[in-house]
Design brief:
The chain has 569 residues and is of the alpha/beta class. It has five domains: 14-102, YNR034W-A-like (Profilin-like, 3-Layer(aba) Sandwich); 110-201, Beta-Lactamase; 233-409, Rossmann fold (3-Layer(aba) Sandwich); 417-483, Orthogonal Bundle (Helicase, Ruva Protein, domain 3), CATH 1.10.8; 529-567, Arc Repressor Mutant, subunit A, CATH 1.10.10. It is 43% helix and 18% strand. A hairpin with a 2-residue loop joins strand 4 and strand 5 (76-83). Helix 12 (348-360) crosses helix 14, helix 21 (518-538) crosses helix 22 (543-550) and helix 22 crosses helix 23. The protein starts with 13 loop residues before the first strand and ends with a helix. Bound molecules: adenosine-5'-triphosphate. Adenosine-5'-triphosphate is lined by residues 241-243, 269, 271-277, 383, 423, 459-460, 463, 553, 556.
């Protein structure tokens, strides 16, 4: 029940409504005089026995939503009302957080967030209990008193004058130094309504400790900034190519010779031999080495996107294109090195366009007729047999001449088995460092065993074998059994069986040398197909895992799948 004698709706934004135990209006002001609001609050108040009234809530169904703070004492319902527009952060906060009152209570009472609130006349309106205790005053004793009469060295009055926030100031109070912040509060209409003072840190020492931490972190950052070029060098330069065999020594000599010359280099060799590392080393040692090398993997880009990826495109050139267009790899590589990996997988129509760019450095973005220019050094790599592709017409001879001013063959691991121990130790050490593991080492017969394997997946396969062994070895000592290569992938025994049936040696059976008899090639394809099918089944079609298991790159696996596509389906 509510009183009929309430006035008419005023134009106020806030108000107060006090109801007696029967729901009769005892007092109303501002929006508290709105009869509609009175009716709604009275109904809530009547139902308090079954549904307790929240300390803070949003009153909907009125001309504008109201934020209501309720205080109940001795059966009297006291409601403080604020009219808020939707979208107002306070409205959003109260309507979406049903424990909003508890949060506000936390802010006004939490000892670590202790606050003092003053009005626009610098009179204290609220002081957190912890502040009152600090100043030795009773609960509410300072309310209404000028802040300067209560808090020494207060600058809240000054902040009201300047309207400028002060953060991190040291203030001495009762002989103690505190780091404080002072913030003027302006309401949505732009009127200055008061200010809040807050202790941020209990002592300048806490700030000093924070400053010290920042200084330490800065030092750490500058250490890494200094170290980065060195680390980059060691992970991407010549140092990353592990091995001391004659074959590797010769390879490094060729890299050193060719790096400073601005000629195109073609890297050939089986999958996993380290062509990528060689490309990085050449770039690092070249005059362009201070810039990042731009990488393109022709086998990893879907056929219909190769052109856009290489040449870039104008906005809206094709469905799915970015609105503002995009720079292509040729443009990105201006003044640095472009590494075209798996160039043997490039479609013929793109080969023609690439050739044109390589001849005069000019190209057009897809969807544009403007000629652009780029000056870059080209390094290409492929594990494909160019001799065969040139014969079959799958690779253009003129492009081949352009990309292969210098050709470097990266030898397969089986031609430099003396590098196996050093590589294996390096991979084990890297694994332990990366995963924070200690104490793993190879058993006495492991190196000889590893050197007896033909490694058709080359260094990549060796690396994965060592990592697998480090993960699965029960003891710290890694045994030959831990390093077993899955039979399907080509253990020595497999290859021997294979070679016996086709009259080949184990070594050449795992290679891809030119001029193999057709029968062997077909048989190899069959074995490869079986191995790939098996690996894909084992890993539920997950190509990344299948490629790792087979010891080949993912791009090589994709290539093989495309080749075998019809039979795999
Ligand atoms: N000599 C080496 N020393 C240290 N790590 C090597 C060496 N050769 C290869 N690796 C490592 O073996 C893995 C495969 O090397 P990389 O990717 O360079 O081979 P790739 O010839 O480019 O293969 P693909 O033709 O499949 O792309 C990489 O993890 C690389 O770091």
């Amino acid at each position: 029940m509510y009183s009929k004698n309430s006035g008419q709706t005023p134009n106020a934004r806030s108000g107060v409504l006090v109801l007696d135990p029967e729901g009769v209006v005892v007092f109303g002001s501002g929006t508290g005089l709105d009869t509609h609001i009175q009716g709604k609050l009275s109904a809530l108040w009547d139902a308090r026995g079954t549904r307790p009234v929240s300390a803070m809530f949003i009153l909907e169904g009125t001309s504008e939503p109201m934020t209501v703070v309720s205080f109940a004492s001795a059966g009297t319902g006291c409601f403080v009302l604020y009219r808020h527009d939707r979208g107002d952060p306070l409205y959003e906060f109260v309507s979406s957080v049903d424990f909003s009152a508890d949060i506000l209570r936390h802010f006004v009472t939490d000892p670590y967030e202790a606050i003092t609130v003053v009005d626009d006349q610098a009179r204290i309106r609220y002081m957190s209990p912890v502040h009152e205790k600090f100043f030795g005053i009773q609960r509410g004793e300072a309310t209404g008193v000028d802040v300067n009469a209560v808090i020494e060295n207060s600058r809240l009055a000054a902040v009201l004058r300047t309207r400028k926030t002060e953060v991190g100031h040291v203030q001495t109070m009762r002989g103690k130094s505190r780091v404080v912040s002072r913030t003027p509060i302006v309401n949505p209409e732009g009127r200055l309504v008061g200010a809040i003072g807050q202790v941020m840190f209990k002592s300048p020492a806490a700030v000093e400790a924070l400053g010290e931490e920042i200084r330490r972190l800065r030092q750490e950052i500058s250490f890494y900034e200094r170290e980065l070029p060195r680390l980059r060098g060691s992970t991407q330069g010549m140092e990353s190519i592990v091995g001391e065999s004659d074959a590797i020594k010769k390879l490094k000599e060729r890299i050193k010779k060719v790096a400073p010359l601005d000629v195109s280099v073609l890297l050939v060799g089986e999958s996993g031999v380290g062509k990528d590392l060689v490309a990085h080393a050449i770039h690092q040692l070249s005059p362009r080495g201070h810039k990042d090398m731009v990488l393109v993997n022709a086998a990893a880009i879907p056929g219909n996107l190769v052109e856009a990826e290489l040449f870039g495109y104008e906005g809206g050139a094709f469905t799915g294109a970015e609105k503002r267009g995009r720079t292509g790899k040729f443009e990105e590589a201006d003044q640095t090195t472009l590494f075209l990996d798996e160039i043997g997988d490039m479609p013929l129509d793109i080969q023609v366009k690439v050739l044109r760019t390589l001849q005069d450095g000019s190209f057009q973005r897809v969807g544009s007729s403007t000629q652009r220019r780029s000056e870059f050094r080209l390094i290409s790599a492929s594990n494909r047999n160019f001799e065969r592709m040139l014969t079959t017409g799958d690779f253009r001879l003129d492009l081949f001449y352009r990309i292969s001013a210098v050709t470097i063959r990266v030898p397969p691991l089986r031609e430099r088995l003396e590098d196996v121990p050093m590589l294996a130790e390096t991979f084990l050490e890297r694994f332990m460092r990366r995963h924070n593991v200690q104490g793993k080492y190879f058993g006495p017969r492991v190196m000889a065993y590893l050197q007896s394997l033909p490694w058709p997946g080359n260094v990549r396969q060796l690396q994965h074998t060592i990592e697998r062994a480090a993960i699965f070895s029960e003891q710290n000592e890694i045994s030959c059994e831990d390093c077993e290569v899955p039979r399907e992938v080509g253990s020595g025994a497999d290859l021997e069986e294979l070679s016996e049936s086709f009259g080949e040696t184990a070594r050449s059976a795992s290679g891809f040398s030119l001029g193999e008899p057709v029968g062997v090639r077909q048989a190899k394809s069959r074995v490869e197909l079986d191995m790939i099918r098996e690996a894909l089944q084992r890993f539920d079609g997950n190509k990344k895992k299948a490629a790792e298991y087979l010891g080949i790159s993912r791009s090589h696996l994709y290539k093989k799948i495309t080749e075998f596509d019809s039979s795999l389906r």
